[in-house]
């Protein structure tokens, strides 16, 4: 489709699409939204524009105080029972409606399953570009959004501009931007928007929901404890041990690319430059050498523990605690001790 050149001066405001997730029956804002608000605040300050959060989903009032504290000036709330579960057509239509009405200059989405599904549909419908999986965002001297992302399999970092169109839209990977409470106690203005769902336009009906408790990237990128394995874990039996330890500590299993390539675990478990970026409280790296492409995906972790039989492995340069030894002998002892405590 040919993009329509917009009157870009009419577009103002930095928007963040706040994804709502259900956790044990309770709806809450997905934490990546707060990371995007913190970055959005910086962009809005540079541009001298407002920072607005968009919340689609029923009964999310309880999350508004937190959204305000992360720096939003305004909250656009689309709140009706039909929006309770994510529905591509309904959510895309709500976003398009809001964008056409209020004309923001920038719209940011999380690079999650929902963000990756929603944003391209919105972009195609309103004929603007979309930069997926950004790891950096800034504003240049011409007031355009510089969208930085890995390209060519992660071999270069590309700066992408969409200067002639508005809004400029990007998805951003979870855990690459820091979140920071910027306005404690602040109450953002809430604008309730009633956007009716056209039942004919919403082609998908949710009949039943099964929430997978353990697997997948979604769990990994929010886990507070990650037990990760590399080629040194040797096989999928070794990963069963990592899973046992992760279960004991209420965490998730991660992996290096070598472990994924060898078929020990699915690709969604890959941590690193071409996988998921994580920032847990505890990251345990077993049989992982510490290649730079792995390190960039986990060095924001609070505490890193490495288990490796090679004392010269580069992972020991980034860990807080290191154990030199064979993971297949050390892990059973650790699991036994954790079970006792
Ligand atoms: P190895 O480098 O083979 O290391 C295995 C380690 O296990 C060694 O240090 C060894 O001493 C130790 N070991 C062996 N046996 C034992 C034992 N019994 N007990 C304890 N320790 C043992 N990699 C990623 O992880 N994530 C990415 O997203 C990623 N993206 C990439 C993107 C590009 C463009 C490129 C070029 C590469 C990328 N890589 C990525 C690959 C990366 O360069 C490394 O090849 C990979 O991380 C190595 O994985 P590994 O540490 O498991 O394996």
UniProtKB/TrEMBL annotation:
FAD binds at residues 231, 256-257, 270-274, 287-294, 308. Its cofactor is FAD. Keywords: Electron transport, FAD, Flavoprotein, Iron, Iron-sulfur, Metal-binding, Transport. SUPFAM superfamilies: 4Fe-4S ferredoxins, Adenine nucleotide alpha hydrolases-like, DHS-like NAD/FAD-binding domain. One of its GO terms (molecular function) is metal ion binding. It holds the Pfam family ETF_alpha. One of its GO terms (biological process) is fatty acid beta-oxidation using acyl-CoA dehydrogenase. Binds 1 FAD per dimer. The keyword Protein biosynthesis does not apply. Belongs to the ETF alpha-subunit/FixB family. This is Electron transfer flavoprotein alpha subunit.
